[in-house]
Each structure stands twice: as structure tokens, then as C-alpha cells.
Design goal:
- With 347 residues, this protein is mainly alpha-helical.
- It is built from 13 helices and four strands.
- The chain has two domains: 135 residues, no CATH class; 175 residues, hpI Integrase, Chain A.
- It has a two-stranded antiparallel sheet with strand order 1-2. Strands 3-4 form a two-stranded antiparallel sheet.
- Strand 1 and strand 2 form a beta hairpin.
Length: 347
């Protein structure tokens, strides 16, 4: 097993010790990972590269935590929240006899954790079960990215839907999973497509967006959405993750000599002849499928944009439904309330 040398400023002998410390801090609702030197994260993610044995639960937890920090798919507060849930999952797995992140950490173990009673000895709510499953999935994604795990034992873990709606707003943990599963290739602009969808841009608006629609193409924070059928023209805020993705997208386009007037995520030269809107739908559906969310009965590609409305709703000091409607470009307050799962008598 690889050893973390004292040159990194640690008096630790192995990843196992560090993993235990990180897991305990997450369990206590704290975050000591921010104390790690930046280069230690690379060591954590590569130190098991030449080991023939799967990482122990503590080692794997340390690697997952380090990967979440280096990838930047979600905020540090979100990392702490998921880290605490994943720490509980690791503790549960240990009780069930699991020692390594291998095929013994299977669907049965995952299901038992997801459905386990809370500390108050009560059955978990639907939301709690979904969050637990998301934390496990985020952990498996991180380990797959560094070649330390294959597959995802939660993919067949079916849970009750979070709502009775045909299309609800995606939850924060679902957005995090989508970001982690957005794959960038020459033929795919999935991260940029998702970054725009997060702003509430519809599948018909996204193909129309060009670099000039960003407030600052080299360091964007906002995007001008063109509007269309059922939605009005509006200015939308980018999430920190979305801003980083679009900044990188614009830079790569400049380096490749792509004309400024070409759409950010649709080139128009698809061999299968898909329309711009169909191309965007395919990209977002692919991300959802990879994240294990495609089969959720109340989750569609529209749910990503509804999340932006929910964010505006929760951030508003006054008239939250109006804020959500403006964010989504919807003139009907009833329609906006429905899309974010708000009922007028709930407040």
C-alpha cells in the first residue's frame, strides 16, 4: 500500500488513517479536508494505482472526499453534507461485514443503508432515502473516475417517487449527480448543455445561445436567455459550476478558432440529422441515464430548469413565487408554483 510521505506535511502513515479522520469529521458535521495541502489530493487519488487490492472503506472514503474537492462539481457545504451521509453509509457497511470497496459493497448493502431507520428510530422519509442513494452514487462515481470501482450497485435501487407530479424540480443532490455524470468529448458538449439548462434555459433556447449572450465570455456570471414559446426573454444567473464550465467552453472554442456566431452547444452538423432541440434533449437525457435518474417517474429534462426556479424561490426574501416565475420566464404564477412543487396553502 502506498504511503503518504512526511514531505506533504502529514504525520500519517497511510490513507486508512487519513480516511478515518475525514470520515469522523464528516460524521461530526465538520470539514477538515480544507486543511489538506492542494497536492495531497492528487496523492490520495493516485496512491492506490499500483495496488492489486481494492481500497478499504476508510481509504476509499478519503479518495472520494479528495476527488469531490478537486473536481468542484458542487460547493464545499454540499460536499460536507454528502460526506456526512456517505460516512454513515461506510459505518453501516462495516457493521454488515464489508471491509473494502469491492463487490461485497453490493446492492443489498446499499439498500439496507438507504432504508435503515434514523437516529430517532423512525423509518426514513422518501427525501432522506433519495439523499442517501445520491451520496452513495456520488461516491461510486468518484471511485470509478480514478479506476478504483466498476459499476454502481445503486442503479437498480428503486425508491418511491419524491412527488406525484409528472415533472418536478430536480433536488440539489440530483443536480450534483448530473454534474458528475456530464461527459465532455469532441462530439459531446454535455457539461455546457447542463450548465445552461441549470439556468432555466429550455431545450429550445439552449441551441440559440452564443458566447455573446454571456455577460463576460471569458469570465461569465450571467447569460441572456432568448425566450420562446411559453417563456420570456430574461437574464439568468449561472451557478459557480456552470460559470466554470462555460468559461472553459469559450476558451476551448477560441483556441480551436470556432466562429463567435456559432452556438455554444449545437454545431448543426449532426450526422443523424437531429434538430437542435432534439440534440439538446438527447444530451440531457444521456446525462440523466448515466446518473441513474432517467427512470424516476417525476423527473424529466425539464426538471433541471425547474431547479433554477426552486433556487430563486428559496433565495427570495419577499414574493418567492414571483421570483421563481421570473427566473423561469413564466408569466403564470400558478404554473410557476406547480413547477417548483409549491402549493399556495403551504405557507
Amino acid at each position: 500500500m502506498s504511503i503518504i510521505s512526511s514531505s506533504y506535511g502529514f504525520d500519517l502513515n497511510s490513507l486508512e488513517v487519513l480516511g478515518d479522520l475525514l470520515r469522523q469529521s464528516a460524521y461530526n458535521g465538520e470539514d477538515i479536508s480544507c486543511m489538506l495541502p492542494g497536492d495531497i489530493r492528487e496523492v490520495l487519488m493516485t496512491s492506490l494505482e499500483f495496488s492489486s487490492q481494492a481500497p478499504t472503506l476508510s481509504e476509499g472514503f478519503a479518495i472520494v472526499t479528495a476527488h469531490w474537492h478537486s473536481a468542484g462539481d458542487f460547493s464545499e457545504a454540499s460536499q460536507r453534507r454528502l460526506g456526512q451521509v456517505l460516512s454513515n453509509a461506510v459505518a453501516r457497511a462495516q457493521v454488515l461485514g464489508v471491509q473494502h470497496w469491492d463487490d461485497t459493497f453490493n446492492d443489498v448493502v446499499c439498500s439496507k443503508f438507504v432504508r435503515s431507520f434514523t437516529t430517532d428510530n423512525e423509518a426514513p422519509s422518501v427525501g432522506t432515502m433519495h439523499l442517501r442513494r445520491s451520496a452513495l452514487r456520488a461516491g461510486f462515481v468518484a471511485l470509478r473516475r480514478v479506476g478504483l470501482f466498476k459499476g454502481d450497485p445503486t442503479l437498480d435501487l428503486v425508491l418511491p417517487p419524491r412527488s406525484s407530479l409528472t415533472a418536478r424540480a430536480a433536488s440539489d443532490d440530483e443536480i450534483w449527480l448530473l454534474r458528475m455524470n456530464a461527459v465532455a468529448t469532441r462530439a459531446s458538449r454535455q457539461p455546457a448543455t447542463l450548465a445552461l439548462a441549470e439556468t432555466s434555459a429550455t431545450t429550445s433556447e439552449i441551441p440559440q445561445i452564443r458566447a455573446r449572450h454571456l455577460d463576460d465570455p471569458l469570465d461569465p456570471t450571467m447569460v441572456e436567455l432568448p425566450g420562446g414559446k411559453g417563456v420570456t426573454k430574461r437574464i439568468a444567473l449561472l451557478s459557480p459550476w456552470g460559470a466554470k464550465v462555460l468559461k472553459s467552453t469559450v476558451k476551448s472554442r477560441i483556441d480551436a478558432g470556432v466562429p463567435d456566431d456559432q452556438p455554444l452547444v449545437y454545431s448543426g452538423d449532426k450526422p443523424d440529422g437531429d434538430s437542435p432541440q432534439a440534440s439538446v434533449c438527447k444530451a440531457l437525457s444521456s446525462i440523466m441515464r448515466r446518473a441513474g435518474l432517467y427512470a424516476e417517474p417525476d423527473l424529466t429534462v425539464r426538471s433541471i430548469g425547474f431547479w433554477a426556479g426552486r433556487q430563486a424561490f428559496e433565495a427570495a426574501d419577499t414574493d418567492p413565487v414571483v421570483a421563481a416565475a421570473l427566473a423561469m420566464g413564466i408569466e403564470s404564477l400558478d404554473c410557476a408554483a406547480s413547477r417548483i412543487g409549491y402549493t399556495w396553502d403551504a405557507r
